[in-house]
Amino acid sequence: MASTRTPATVTVRSGQLGLDRDDLLGMYEAMLLARTLDERMWVLQRQGKAAFVISCQGQEACQVGSAWALQRGRDVVLPYYRDLGVVLTMGMTPYEVLLGLLPRADAAPHQEGDAACQDQTWDAKTCRKGGHAAILPCP
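RE: above sequence
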């Protein structure tokens, strides 16, 4: 059965949700970046350069969509090892993500918080923060 979705239908539905064209393109870019970075992290692990990688493939839309509704600099996220789409949407760079993944001889794993995630740590190797249902008060 053929799909009845047309670009006009998608535009109307996204407009009803308060999303404009720039939002949709930004969300798509974040999903694509999450998938691309996830694939690269997987390759690094298979090459023995990273000890622990759990893929987030297939979860990019949920992660980016949920993080897109948050306000950067105000809302707090407590990411865990599959939340690559969340941390990228909240403003972490691929470089910062890879610092948490790759071992370095001159420093401990990337443990300092990130301003984009309100000083919460995202580390690909371990889950160092609270559980999935953590709630923090916002000022």
